[in-house]
Amino acid sequence: MSFSSQNFSPEIVRALTECGYEKLTPIQKQAIPHARRGHDILANAQTGTGKTAAFALPIIQQICNNPKPRSRFNVRALILAPTRELAAQIAKNIEDYTKYVSINVAAIYGGTKMSSQEKKLEQGLDILVATPGRLLEHLELKNVSLANLEFLVFDEADRMLDMGFITDIRAIMSDIRSQPQTMLFSATFSSQMNKLSTEILRKPKRISVDRENATADTVSHVVYPVDEDRKRELLSELIGKKNWQQVLVFVNYKETANMLVEELKLDGIKTVLCHGDKAQSARRRALDEFKEGKARVMVATEVAARGLDIQGLPHVVNYDMPFLAEDYVHRIGRTGRAGQKGHAVSFVSREEELTLVQVETLIGQRIHRVQLTGYEPASRDALLQKMQTKSAFKDRKGRTNNPTDQSAAERRVRLRQAIKNKAKITTMKK
C-alpha cells in the first residue's frame, strides 16, 4: 500500500518519496486511516516501526487542509517526547515530510538556551515537538500557549512515565483548554500507562502491530555470562575477534560510561560518549561521529535508549543489564530496524541473573547463552539454584527510576519554583 493511496497531497508524497518511503508499514496502515478521521489513538508500537510518520502525516495533511494565520505564541499541534534526542529526531523527520508545504515546526528541550527557543515560539508554530520539563518551563514563563491546541501526541509515553514525567504531563494537560485529537504511542504497557490513557483519551482506537513488550523478529539475542570485573575485557575481545565495526554499548551509570570509554581507547578502539552530563552539542557531535563511522563504539546511558535513529546499526551491547526489564526492549530497538538484521548482546554477571529472568519472561523467549572460554563466572550454578528456591527472588520487582531520572525530576521542581518566585518578585516591584 502506497502513501498516495491514503490521499496525501502530491507535495507530501513527493517529500516522502525523496525520504525513501515506498510502502506503508503495519503501524502506518492501521493508524493513518483512524487519525485522518479524527479519532483518538492508543497504539502499541516498537521503535523502528515507522510510528513517527503514522502520527505526523495525518496532522500535517489536516493542517494543510485547514490553513490558519499564525498567532503569537500559539501552537496548533504538540508532540511530547521523553528525551532530547527523540524530540530532535521527530522534528527533523517532520521537516523532511513538510519540505514542499508551508508548515513550520520547532523542537524545544533542555540543554539549549531558553532565549533562542522563545524566539521560535513567539512567531507561533504549526507543530511543536517538546520534552515535558522544558515545555512546562516555557508555559510558566508564558512563552507558549496551548489554548487553541488541535492535535496532541505522546510518543514513547511509557518512557515518560519511567522518567518521572507524570506530574509534568498533568500540569501540561491542565493548560490545555481545547479538546485536541490525542494520540498515545507506547512500546510497553503497565497499569500506570493504562490509567493515563483513560485520563487523556476519548473513545480511542486501539492499535497493536506486535505483541506488547515484544522484540523485533529481525534481532538475534545472545547472553554472555561473565563476572562484573571481566566485562570490559570481554567487550574488547568480542569487538576485536568478531571485527564489529559499529557497536552501541549501554551502561547504567555515567561513571561506568566514562571509565569504559577511557579503557576502550587504551585498547585502540575509537569510542565516543553520550550521557546526561554531556552538553547537547557534544552528544550530537558524538552521535554524528558514530553514524559516520569515525568512531567504532558509542557508550551511552539510558538517556540515549530512545530517539537514536542509526540506520543499519548492527550491534547493541548491554554492558549492564537495565534496571527495568522493559528498557531491554527499548535498548535493543536501536538495531534490527526497518527489516534489517540486528544483534543484541548482553553481559550478565551473577548479580544480574534476576534481571535476565525478568527480561526473558517479558519478551516470552529464552535467550541463547554463550560461555566464552576464559570468562566463566564463578559459582553461577549455585546462584541460579538459590534463585529458583527463594520466592523473594521470583517476586522481586525492578526499580522504577534510576538515580539520574529522580534527580532530574527534582531539579525541574526546583527550577519551576524559582521561576514562580521570580514572577512574584517582578509583580511586587510593579
Automatic annotation (TrEMBL):
> Which keywords accompany this UniProt record?
ATP-binding, Helicase, Hydrolase, Nucleotide-binding
Sequence segments annotated as region (Disordered): 390-411
Q: Where is this motif: Q motif?
A: 1-29
Signal peptide positions are none
Name listed for the protein in its UniProt record: RNA helicase
Keyword Membrane present in the record's keywords: the answer is no
Q: Does the keyword Transmembrane helix apply?
A: no
Q: Domain DEAD-box RNA helicase Q: where?
A: 1-29
Q: Which organism is it from?
A: Photobacterium lipolyticum
Q: Where are the transmembrane segments?
A: none
